[in-house]
Amino acid sequence: MINRKKVLRLWREEGLKVHRHRKRRRPPVGEQVMRAERPNHVWAIDFQFDATSDGRMVKIANAVDECTREALLGRVGRRCTSTDLVEVLEGLAFDRGAPEHIRCDNGP
After folding, report:
1. Contact 60, 49 (CB under 8 A)
2. What is the pLDDT of residues 73-94, one digit of tens each?
3. How far is Cα 71 from Cα 86, in angstroms, rounded to an integer?
């Protein structure tokens, strides 16, 4: 029998990458993650950042209907303020109907 610590030490000595297992994040006890049950029930909004070849930043705002997995919004620009996003979402809600819930990560 070889214990786990010895195996990890041998891997390090050989220059191999030691895989670290990350614990899966779960919601706190008593809290459940809301799942979309029908179209327009839950929309997910997220931002992505990238840079062009000249080094200037580009911001991408995405919105997805979680039930149908339909891309509702894909706004690309050098900047996207909160008022810009609110205007686009209001227009989207006017065309499709407002969602019951909006999910957004708490990233930067």
Report:
1. yes
2. 888 888 888 888 889 889 999 9
3. 17
